[in-house]
Amino acid sequence: MSPIEFAEKSSVPLLCINALTKRYGQERAIDRVTFSVLPNEVLGVIGPNGAGKTTLMETAVGLLAADSGELLWRGERLLASRRRGLLFYLPDGVRPYQDQLTAEVISFFASVYRRSAAEIDETLTSVGLKPVLHKRVHTLSKGYNRRLLLALGLLTPHELVLMDEPFDGFDLRQTRDIIGVLRHHAQRGRTFVLAIHQLADAERVCDRFVLLADGQIRGLGTLDELRAETSLPNGSLEDIFLALT
Ligand SMILES: Nc1ncnc2c1ncn2[C@@H]1O[C@H](COP(=O)(O)OP(=O)(O)OP(=O)(O)O)[C@@H](O)[C@H]1O
């Protein structure tokens, strides 16, 4: 592919979310949310508790039915029936196959997606899961359960992986390691959408940000774009979020 073809291909959004709205009764948990996800980026959906991050992810992947709005995949309408094959979603706080050994869960997932022994080994090493392979999933600590979820996400072939609070349960050093893993996979062709409420973590891992409050987008762009928009040339993501909400 020539450099020009590559640039053109890269500038087509992988996913466009157009005016997505989801109500619970009278409450609009997300309200006409519109943004694009670019190939190979790490996009952060940032917002405080109750902002609508989980609802946005679950509506986008089709777990919840939207009240209105649509999704486009590489410019074409994406029906709910095709989403499972294109988008992989890692929810917050689930424990997959609780009674199984961690090694068995990994091995099952890897066989479904035909991963080689080398790919499995690399994934287990990168997320630091090897010390607990002999343990049953329900006995894993919160941080190790999170590592298991990350490993499962990385073993899938999906181009776009959405993760709800991927750093929850990690200390500073573990968060830094996992940020490195996600950035490495983004460089190799994966795209990530991460719902994060810790602004400092988000600032370190994400290329661009969707700032969400009360179900509505309050800001969208790179840190530099958001700094320019808020006239805060040296502002942190936290400063920007406070200025916009
Ligand atoms: N099943 C539900 N029924 C009714 N209201 C709901 C339901 N799930 C979420 N909500 C409401 O929708 C709004 C958005 O919630 P959501 O869980 O999407 O936010 P969030 O940003 O993911 O929050 P957190 O960071 O606390 O997980 C909140 O006001 C919440 O109370």
TrEMBL record:
InterPro entries hit by this protein: AAA+_ATPase, ABC_transporter-like_ATP-bd, ABC_Transporter_VariousFunc, P-loop_NTPase
Record-annotated membrane-spanning stretches: none
Keywords of this entry: ATP-binding, Nucleotide-binding, Transport
Coiled coil: none
All residue ranges annotated as the ABC transporter domain in the record: 15-239
A GO molecular-function descriptor: ATP binding
Gene3D superfamilies, A to Z: P-loop containing nucleotide triphosphate hydrolases (3.40.50.300)
Source superkingdom: Bacteria
Protein's job: Involved in beta-(1-->2)glucan export. Transmembrane domains (TMD) form a pore in the inner membrane and the ATP-binding domain (NBD) is responsible for energy generation.
Listed name of the protein: ABC transporter ATP-binding protein
